[in-house]
Design goal:
The chain is an alpha/beta fold and 450 residues long. Helix content is 29%, strand content 16%.
Length: 450
């Protein structure tokens, strides 16, 4: 039996986009997410409003149907059709296009575990608070691989899942910042210090980062900014840098540590340079302690030089942790455009340390004035607020005051041209809490309205 089937002709050839993100007589095949009856001129807006929609096709079917689609896509994936009424388009309203600032959240405590925010996690089972509070290195040294590998695998599997990426997209975020440690590469070719220190950590963190960047983020139309949170030798001595010598920072005092970090950020940038969801890398998180400013700046020059040989990805540079204002040192003149491009200058602005004894009204006034003015007075590369939160040095027992505090900080940070990422998405088992560190809780309780 022969069956004749009439189909619309599809040809992959030049489509006239006319500088727009939509065109006529074209289609994207497959990857259907959902559909809705609507007029052709409203289809692109429907895609922007729909979680996970990255591109769309409109047809005259059923008096006009917008077919919303998911996944990594480019205009070159479109096909021309014989139906001149069809329209196709891409959703290009993301920070990677330079048309929208980052509005995002940190996935803190996941691939660089922090005990204070994941106390109930299986990662810390059988570990004293004193040891756990010193970070992953000390914890794995205590547990050993026979126990620690399994416990940290349980933690990574359960703490952040695909559902979190979906929830973050529903919350109208466009970016996740993911902290990682130097051990994620699985090598150390620096030729000094302890060349086997990376082997102390539970293996295969890279598998989780791969899945985040290659599967979950593109599925929900999110971008990923990698934060190099824990460098060999520790750049700040704090638990979130997983130091082998807690409280002490050795990163900037030994060239082999800097070499290892350069190798690691280049390796990460090469690994993900062709991934649509890869936004870029924060080159070093919260350098402080004994880290020399001169060594830090030379590291940024060298990292930029290495990565720019093959990638134009966004790179974020952080000053020393004590340098979080518009006039600190000469950072406002450091690595400026046009000699350097696609850079962000990263601040972490918390109203906790150094604000002890302040009451609610004073904190709100500070956010409305000094915090906002500091951003407006900055004259260097675009400011990016990599970390902030609603937790503070005051109790904020009154919900109205907490709303005012959240709104004041949002107003200040929304003025940062590079955008912001809240610290953090969630604590372990904090659903329904009033935890000012948890964006998930603050959104669910209505304290933050993005």
């Amino acid at each position: 039996m022969v069956v004749n089937i009439l189909v619309i002709g599809y040809v992959r050839c030049d489509i006239n986009w006319n500088g727009n993100n939509w065109a006529s007589a074209c289609d994207f095949r497959g990857k259907d997410l959902s559909n809705v009856q609507t007029a052709s001129n409203l289809c692109g807006g429907k895609c922007l409003e729909t979680v996970g929609c990255t591109h769309f096709t409109w047809t005259s079917y059923n008096s006009g149907t917008c077919w919303m689609k998911y996944g990594v896509v480019s205009k070159s994936d479109a096909f021309t059709t014989d139906d001149t009424t069809m329209i196709c388009g891409v959703n290009n309203g993301d920070p990677n296009s330079g048309r929208k600032p980052i509005r995002g959240v940190n996935l803190g405590g996941w691939l660089v575990a922090e005990h204070w925010m994941t106390i109930g996690s299986p990662a810390w089972s059988g570990v004293s608070d004193d040891t756990a509070n010193k970070g992953e290195y000390q914890t794995m040294q205590y547990l050993g691989h026979s126990k620690g590998d399994y416990q940290f695998r349980q933690h990574r599997d359960s703490f952040i899942t695909e559902q979190d990426f979906r929830d973050i997209a529903v919350a109208r975020m466009n970016t996740v910042r993911i902290p990682v440690g130097y051990w994620i590469t699985g090598f150390d070719n620096s030729g000094g210090g302890d060349p086997n220190a990376w082997q102390m950590f539970a293996p295969n963190a890279i598998g989780y980062l791969d899945r985040a960047i290659r599967e979950w983020a593109p599925r929900y139309n999110l971008l990923v900014l990698i934060s190099f949170h824990a460098a060999k030798g520790s750049q700040n001595g704090m638990d979130h840098s997983a130091p082998s010598d807690p409280g002490n920072s050795h990163w900037g005092n030994y060239p082999e540590n800097v070499r290892n970090t350069l190798d690691a950020v280049e390796w990460l940038a090469r690994r993900y340079k062709d991934e649509a969801a890869f936004l870029g890398i924060g080159l070093l998180n919260e350098p402080s302690g004994t880290t020399p400013e001169s060594v830090l700046k030379q590291y940024y020059y060298d990292a930029y030089g290495r990565i720019r040989l093959f990638s134009d990805c966004l790179l974020s540079i952080s000053p020393l942790l004590r340098q979080q204002g518009p006039y600190d040192s000469d950072w406002n003149n450091f690595m400026r455009w046009p000699s350097f491009y696609n850079l962000r200058h990263e601040w972490h602005r918390y109203q906790i340390w150094g604000f002890e004894g302040w009451d609610e009204n004073r904190l709100i006034a500070y956010a409305q004035n000094e915090l906002k003015n500091g951003i407006s007075q900055w004259t260097g590369n675009w400011i990016f607020i990599g970390e902030w939160c609603i937790a503070s040095s005051a109790a904020f027992s009154n919900d109205d005051d907490l709303h005012r505090f959240a709104d004041a900080q949002l107003a200040a940070f929304n003025s940062a041209p590079g955008g912001w990422t809240f610290w953090t998405w969630k604590f372990y088992n904090d659903d329904g809490s009033r935890n000012g560190w948890s964006l998930k809780s603050m959104i669910n309780r209505g304290f933050i309205r993005v």
